[in-house]
Known about the structure:
2 helices; single chain; mainly beta; three-stranded antiparallel beta sheet
Amino acid sequence: MVDHFNYDTKSSAENHNVLLIPRPGPLRPNVVNFFGGDGLLAVPKAVGQTLGSSSPLINPILKAPETSYIYNPKEEAGEEQDTSATGSQIALVSAMQARNSARFTVLGSLEMLQDAWFDASVQTPTGKSTKTVNREFVRQLTEWTFKEVGVLKVGRVEHHQVEDASKAVANTTQVGFSDPEIYRIKNDVVGQLSRIS
């Protein structure tokens, strides 16, 4: 990945391949943002991913900036390059959560995990110097991937069968035995889930 507008002028003054990207916002308005916050992420020598839209289980966590593109340094400079995706069509970090809640994360830059980038001093092309927040982002990423956050844990399950209290008195019901061993097809059931705090 290369970006001529969002790169670190200290470490990649010529190649422009250390991208400086703000922390990601929420994927959708109704989804909790487990990876957000303030600050810039340094993403050195990234490999971009195009996800498509065929599966709702795969989501981009960190998208490339609008001005970035995929560049192959092995191709000769005189040849025209085929860019199948550019800008925010490219994911730098993506994740999948399967229907059985298994989680899988793909990180496009292994160097992003190095200690040197955890709180490195970087400088944007506009001249602004800042420290990266890679350590905090990687912590959030691993917490989500290894199910330390974003998991609904059920502590207690209760269910009761609703029975008629009396045939003579109309519109009265009572709750039957707690957690009976068997229900019939047309039984009315009341249930309650308690989560672990």
